C-alpha cells in the first residue's frame, strides 16, 4: 500500500517537474515577449525628440476646462515631455479685469513626471531585453527576481503620473515656472502645473498680503498638491494668504493609454509570479 502511494507521488512529481520545466523554458519567454510588446507600445506614447533623422515630437494643443468656473480659460501646448506654449486668460474676481498670461517665446517647461515615467518604462524594457529567447531560466526564483525588478520600474512609472509632488507655497513661488511668462506674472499670482493620472493640471493662486497689524493667527501651510483659500506663507519680508484658487485641466489621451499599458503589464507579471509560486509550494525544500 505504502509503495503504491509513493509510486503515485513519484509519478505526480514527475508530471509536475515536466510542467515546471515547460513553464520555465516556454511560457516564461512567451510572457516576456508579450510584456516587451506592450511596453514598446507604452514607450511610443512617450516619444520625444531624438537625434539624427527622427522628427521632433509633434506639438499638441489642449484646451483647459473646468466644471466649476469660467474664471480661467486657455490652451496649453505639449511637445513630448515639455510645455512649449501656454496661453491663459484669467478673469480677476475682485474687479473682473481680464489678465492674459503667455509663455515667453524662448521658453519651454519640462514636465519631470512625464520624463521620469518614460525613463522607468525604458528601464523595464532594458531588463526584459536582457533575457532573450535563447536564455535558459534555471529556477523559479530567477523568474520571480526578474518580475519583481520589472514590476518595481512599472510601479514607479505609474506612481510618477498618479502621485503629483506636494509643494509648499514658497516652493511654488521659487519654481522656474513663475519666470516663464511674458509679461512677468503680477506679484499677487502663483502658477503651478502638474500631471495627475491622465490629466495636465494648471493651478492659479491669487494672493493678498497680510497687514503687519493683522489679527489673523499666522500659520504657514505645509506641502500640498492643491492648496486651499486661506493657506498662508511667508515670502521675502511679506506674509501672504491665498484668496482664490483656480484649477483647470485637460485630458491627455496618450497618458491614459500609457496607464492602461502599465496596469496590464503589472497584471501579467503578477500572474506569472503566481504560477511560479504554485509550483514552488510543492517543492518547499528546493530553491524555486
From TrEMBL:
The lineage of its organism: Eukaryota, Metazoa, Chordata, Craniata, Vertebrata. It is found in: Cytoplasmic vesicle, Secretory vesicle, Synaptic vesicle. One of its GO terms (cellular component) is synaptic vesicle. It comes from the Eukaryota. InterPro entries: RAVE2/Rogdi. It holds the Pfam family Rogdi_lz. This is Protein rogdi homolog. Belongs to the rogdi family. One of its GO terms (biological process) is neurogenesis.
